[in-house]
Design goal:
Length: about 400
């Protein structure tokens, strides 16, 4: 491994362990010397701040910004979990949450649902608890509850060595070996101190440094990547960079997975924090712009379908509008669900569903004659296009 002599302690150092392999001991943040925020990094930081501000403003123009958050949390859950090898799609997750289970649903949908629960738990806890080791451990416990890896002590810091690399590798042949377990509590404590004080660095730079440091510490036996990506969303919210958590970088990290890992490794091997920060800020800019466009597209779609419902549903238009409003946080439905929403007969609900299907608002997804289910087609497509782009 390249441990460049001119920056041996800027990110940390490799230390040979009793087993003969070398583990990385991270230096506390901030880096010394601090990141060079001149030139390209300064320009990128300015762009990123502007893109975040535009996104924040766009979300606040939505009739119910929390419904946008609802879908963004789920999109992030799917993409972040897919980076770790899960197969479940956004539709699988939404159907499972609506308790509409299908025999073909991937078994790992529970992992994705746990990610949503972990995100919501963390956002709720931020009202009373800062981003801290305690919060990180709570998030991990929720994330790993009852899924593969749950035997690996959810919420508990690891007490054995882990390593990162190809299947079947050992610590001696791994791509990267995080700090030995006895170093983990101090490393996390140092990270928490940095999160609280920030060393006078711009907030976005703090977030980028913190994510890389967390992934380097790798404090759990499983789930480190997902917790580290959740950490970004929590920090953006806590530091007031966004009023609502609608910036999720898993889309960008998945699209640029090889570079993501290479940039993190270059920090450890060469102390190259600047290249990592450029990559991170590029992600913030790209994903902010995409989310801003999605917010605008939601507004256009909503107005378009309001007009279509008014034009095509006649006396049933009021009920049609009520169904559409509910679909924003319940985008997969059955006739029975619509009947319960509207308090009408099954026949009446069936007619409403058929008419909403006729104007393209709903699409039947089972192919069955009975027990059919429908998805809020134009809305889900807005989020799935990005999911497909990231494959």
């Amino acid at each position: 491994m390249n441990t460049s002599e001119n920056k041996p302690h800027r990110a940390g150092r490799y230390v040979r362990q009793p087993g003969g392999y070398r583990a990385f001991i991270p230096a506390p943040l901030p880096p010394d010397p601090p990141p060079d925020l001149s030139g390209a990094l300064r320009e990128r930081l300015s762009e990123a701040d502007y893109a975040l501000g535009r996104l924040d403003g766009a979300v606040l123009t939505l009739p119910n910004p929390d419904l946008f958050v609802f879908m963004y949390v789920r999109k992030e859950a799917v993409l972040s979990s897919q980076i770790e090898g899960t197969q479940s799609s956004l539709q699988n997750l939404l159907a499972a949450e609506a308790q509409l289970f299908d025999p073909d649903t991937p078994k790992d949908v529970t992992e994705v649902a746990n990610y949503v629960r972990a995100m919501n738990h963390g956002l709720a806890r931020l009202a009373e608890l800062p981003v801290s080791v305690r919060l990180i451990r709570e998030i991990h416990a929720v994330l790993m509850e009852g899924v593969r890896g749950s035997r690996l002590t959810p919420g508990e810091l690891r007490t054995s060595q882990n390593w990162i690399g190809p299947a079947g590798c050992t610590p001696a042949t791994a791509t990267f070996v995080p700090p030995p377990p006895h170093e983990v509590p101090d490393a996390l404590s140092n990270l928490e101190t940095f999160l609280h004080h920030g060393a006078g660095l711009p907030p976005l730079i703090q977030v980028g440094l913190a994510h890389a440091q967390f992934e380097t510490i790798h404090p759990f036996l499983d789930g480190n990547g997902r917790v580290g990506r959740l950490l970004i969303a929590f920090l953006l919210t806590e530091k007031g960079l966004l009023s609502r958590p609608v910036l999720y970088l898993s889309h960008y990290f998945k699209q640029h997975r090889a570079e993501y890992y290479e940039r993190l490794q270059a920090v450890r091997d060469e102390g190259d924090w600047e290249s990592w920060l450029l990559f991170f800020l590029d992600g913030v800019i790209t994903v902010s712009r995409e989310a801003t466009q999605t917010a605008a597209a939601i507004l256009r779609m909503r107005e378009d379908y309001r007009a279509r419902i008014t034009e095509h549903l006649g006396r049933a238009a009021a009920n049609g509008q009520r169904v559409m409003d509910r679909l924003f946080d319940h985008p997969i439905v059955t006739v029975a669900i619509v009947r319960d929403w509207l308090g009408i007969t099954a026949t009446g609900a069936h007619q409403i569903v058929n008419r909403l299907e006729g104007i393209g608002l709903l699409r039947e997804i089972t192919g069955y004659a009975r027990n059919r289910r429908f998805r809020f087609e134009p809305y889900l497509r807005l989020f799935e296009e990005a999911e497909e782009d990231a494959v």
